[in-house]
Design a protein that fits this description.
Blueprint: H1 2-25, H2 32-40, H3 54-62, H4 75-86, E1 104-108, H5 118-122, E2 128-129, E3 137-138, E4 158-162
Antiparallel strand pairs: 1-4, 2-3
Helix pairs in contact: 2-3
């Protein structure tokens, strides 16, 4: 009886190790359509589309469960790109989900911040740093401008500031074109 249990446990361990190795060795890629849709979305992770982030929204679009016009941060340009990719008709941005705004970042008035950490908890991309009862600050290159940190702040010390177009921020407005060298 004990021998049979040990043999079964040994088989289970070997099978588990084999499957684990196969999962690492032969990484299964996601749905290519979902990946293409997700690449068009702005990666703000704001949830304005009605989904908890850009990837779940991309999956819903690919499965026909969501319209292509639900992403205010992606704007009209994003809707056009999605329509082109999917061969669908262009629809204006759904006002039910919000309006298109210029790209912006959160800025914390550090003199007013009380260190409550509510903004840190609300930030979907960990762009806010600080400690309890200490002032917080925003790591601007990480901030997606989702505005999710503004509402929970009890002292209204967070403002959304539009980004000026610079060499570093132009890519949010214009698509990046991949250049290939011709031999």
């Amino acid at each position: 009886m004990i021998t049979a249990i040990l043999v079964m446990a040994g088989i289970a361990i070997v099978l588990g190790l084999t499957l684990g190795y196969a999962a690492i060795r032969f990484k299964v890629e996601g749905d290519p359509l979902v990946e293409k849709i997700d690449a068009i979305l702005p990666q703000t992770q704001c949830g304005q589309c009605g989904f908890p982030g850009c990837k779940p929204y991309a999956e819903a679009i690919a499965n026909g469960e969501a319209d292509i016009n639900q992403c205010p941060p992606g704007g009209e340009e994003g809707v056009r790109k999605l329509a082109d990719l999917l061969g669908r008709e262009f629809k204006p941005l759904s006002e039910e989900h919000g309006v298109e705004k210029p790209k912006s970042v959160a800025v914390i008035d550090e003199q007013v911040c009380i260190g409550c950490t509510l903004c840190i908890q609300a930030c979907p991309v960990d762009a806010i740093v600080g400690a309890a009862k200490q002032m917080h600050t925003v790591v601007e290159p990480l901030c997606t401008g989702c505005e999710l940190c503004v509402a929970p702040c009890p002292v209204d010390c967070i403002a959304m500031v539009p980004l000026a177009e610079t060499v570093h921020t132009w890519k949010w407005k214009y698509p990046v074109v991949e250049m290939r060298r011709v031999a």
